[in-house]
Every structure is written in C-alpha cells, then in structure tokens.
Amino acid sequence: MEILVCVKRVPDTAENEFELNSEGNDLDRDDLVYSVNEWDNYAVEEAIQIVDNVGGSVTVVTVGDDESEEVLRREMAMGANNGILLSDDAFEGSDGKGIATILKAEVEKGKYDLILTGAQADEGAGQVGGMLAAMLDLPYASLVNKIEVDGDSTIKVGREIEGGNQEMNEIDLPCVLSIQTGINEPRYVGIRGIRKVAQVEIPVKSASDLGIDASNVGEAGAKTKRVDYFVPDLGEGAEMLEGSTDEIIAQLIERIKSKGGLA
Q1: How far apart are the first and last CA of the chain?
Q2: Which domains occur in the chain, in start order?
Q3: What's the pLDDT at 27?
C-alpha cells in the first residue's frame, strides 16, 4: 500500500511562551521552537504500522519554507520512506483552500492508495483534509481513531462521534482520512535515526514544478484572511489561580468548600 501523509511544522506548545506580534494579528514567531504537528505525528505512526503489516511505503509531504525540511527528516527517522517539500514564495499566506490546492497537485503526480492528514493543526480549523478529498473527488472520513486493512479495494475505519460513541465504516480506496490523536502510540525518535536520514536527499517542488497557477494560492488566492488575534478577556467572576500544583489544588479545594461543594 502506497501511503502519503501530509504533515506541518508548528510552534511547540510545550517549549514556547507565546506573545502577539506588533500588528496584533498573529503570534510573534521570532525565536519560537518548532516541531511536527501532534495530529500529523499520529498519522505518520499509523501509516508506518499499516505498511509494516501489509507492505508498501510511506511518503511524508509538507508545504513550507526550507526550515520545514526538519519535520520531514524527523518523520523519516521515525520510519517514513520518503519526504517531499513543497516550497515556493508564492505559497506564503495560503489559506486552507490554498494549502489543499498545493497538496492536490502533488497527490496527482503520484499513485497513492491512502492519503492521511492530521485531524487539525495549530490553527484548529480542521479543514485541509476535507478540502483535499473534495478536490480529488475521493471518499473521506474525519476524526478517524481506528483503521483496519482487510482488502485491496476497501478498508474499515472507526470514527469518534458525539457522546463518546464509536462508528465503523467501510470506505473505498483510494481515500483521504483525517487522523485523531490516540489512534496509536507514536514511537520514540532517537538520535541514531535522525543521523541515519540526515544526508538523505529530499526533493523540493515549486509552483511551476507542480503546475500550479500562483494566483490560486498564497495571499493572492486566499479567500480568508486573519484580521485579529487576541486572548479573550476574562469573564465576570473568573479568577486565575497561581502557585505550584499543590498550592493551586489547595486553593481550589478551599473555594469549592466555600461554595458548599465539599463538606
């Protein structure tokens, strides 16, 4: 089975203290620590496990600048066979539709049985997987937390639905799936694996390589644009507890007691 996994380089929430930029419409991204998007990492692990069981190869692809190559190498160190970087100044400022358009062009140059994305990335829109499937006219399932490969033409996928319930669907191949966290336990990537792929050549493809009209992507083609980015004001009566974990727990217990919640 030939599997393509779409990944993204995002700010690492565990390693950064976030501040807004001077324009107030985005994070101040200078000196941030970046890593692979968490949901995408689960998708790569799932792809590797499928190939381990049925054979084939895993290719990881990302849209970004030269620094995005690091997330491709990390996922290759994890076990992906190939990496592809889609990079062009024309791609900068792409909205969800623009990113899906760029990925579509790459998908059409290959022959993939399964295309995986994370359920969402750092901006939380959760839209690229569905848009990509629609553009490719392929079956699509979101919030997938189980995949069973039981044939050459179909697979079974489990989806997390409202109320903590689970549903199973049979879906034709090729298809696009958006992967939920918790579907597996992503493996540890050691320094030996990173060194092993450090010199592997990763092809870089531009808009012209992909046959993309630059006016359809990037800021030129964007139909949505972020105009503001802010931390909401605390609601009336809201209070932020400060201190160590034990101190916060003690404060919380006292407040619950004062409201009659604990004897």
Answers
A1: 60
A2: 2-221 (3.40.50.620)
A3: 67
Residue whose structure tokens are 């995002």: 10
pTM value > 0.70: yes
Is the CB of residue 151 less than 8 Å from the CB of residue 122?
no
Q: Tokens for 123?
A: 């901006």
Q: Is 51 exposed, middle or buried (0-12, 13-18, 19+ CB in 10 A)?
A: buried
DSSP string for residues in 3-62: EEEE--EEE-TTT----B-TTSSSB--TT--EEE-HHHHHHHHHHHHHHHHH--EEEEEE
With CA atoms as reference, report the closest residue to 179 among 133, 143, 131.
143
Q: Starting at the edge strand that comes first in sequence, how are the strands of the sheet with 57-63 ordered?
A: 165-172, 154-161, 140-149, 175-179, 114-118, 2-6, 57-63, 82-86, 204-205
Residue type, 51: V
Supply the DSSP string of 110-175, one letter for each residue: S--SEEEEES--TT----HHHHHHHHHT--EEEEEEEEEE-SSSEEEEEEEEGGGEEEEEEEESSE
Q: Which residue type is seen at 166?
A: Q
- Cβ contacts of 238 within 8 Å, gap of 6 or more: none
Is residue 63 within 8 A of residue 88, CB to CB? The reply is no
Alpha-carbon gap, residue 162 to 167, rounded angstroms: 10
State the pLDDT at residue 32.
73
Q: Which residues of the chain have pLDDT under 50?
A: none
Helix/strand/coil for 94: coil
* Cβ atoms of 92 and 222 closer than 8 Å: no
Judge contact between 60 and 8, C-beta under 8 A: no
